[in-house]
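Curious: can you check?
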Amino acid sequence: MATGIIELRPDDADHVKLGQKIYLEQCASCHGVNLEGQAGWRDMMVDGMRLAPPHDKSGHTWHHPDELLYQLTKYGFAAMIGSDYKVSMPVYDGIITDQEIIAALSYIKSTWPADVRQIHDRINADYRLNKAMENHKSGS
């Protein structure tokens, strides 16, 4: 697992350009070229697995802090929330680099409207504050 704070860089043109390339190569076949996800993603399953959600503003990607998005992408859903949650998304650890994961997620965030990005920034700030408080309480 990467150490330190995971922070997306949607305003960094180089990260976004690399991220778009990675997204198109690794993610678009399921999540859509336009980040639209698979039809029926909310309530349909195929072969016992959930369909790929959209990464645009209509989805829920922006409801999660950067660190969780990174960890889900790198380590997979089973490692993060248990094997009962079935998805076809691969684990990207060893397939793409940490920088490429962050770049792909930065590209996704760069496409969101300003109001959604602001909400996501507040989610990240709250997450970091809660994590700092937990670390302080545990003496870390």
Observations:
- The two ends are 17 Å apart (CA to CA).
